[in-house]
Specification:
seven-stranded mixed β-sheet, Rossmann fold, alpha/beta
Amino acid sequence: MLTLDADSEQAQEALGARLAAALGGGCVIYLHGELGAGKTTLVRGLLRGLGYLGTVKSPTYTLLEPYRVGGREVLHLDLYRLADPAELEYLGLHDLAEPDAVWLVEWPERGGNRLPAADLRVEIAYRGRARRLTLTAHSTAGDAILATIQEY
């Protein structure tokens, strides 16, 4: 487990870029936190860290925003509005996702057992105006990401 603090939106984006630098192949990252905690801000930083220059928006209404960055597929999901995990089947995620895709899933608890297991869990909590991010590995890939971030 690793705990990091971000005292601004820019600092949180920088942590996302740091996370991007630590990614190896494909992985699944679950993002937890209250509304407005900065899950999409972290995703924006991660995408920028991978070299994406376009607009990064929250997929609250579309549920899914796919990105192609540097030959890598990144799937950003926001499941806040999901009423039933079975609705994920309509998105065709498992047909869409390449084997080395990066999954960034906000509100993963709403996806039930229809999502791939997390390699890394990121919990974002309010600390006054700042945020505390707690990263927990749940696989060998997650362990490798944490080890790389700690060296960064």
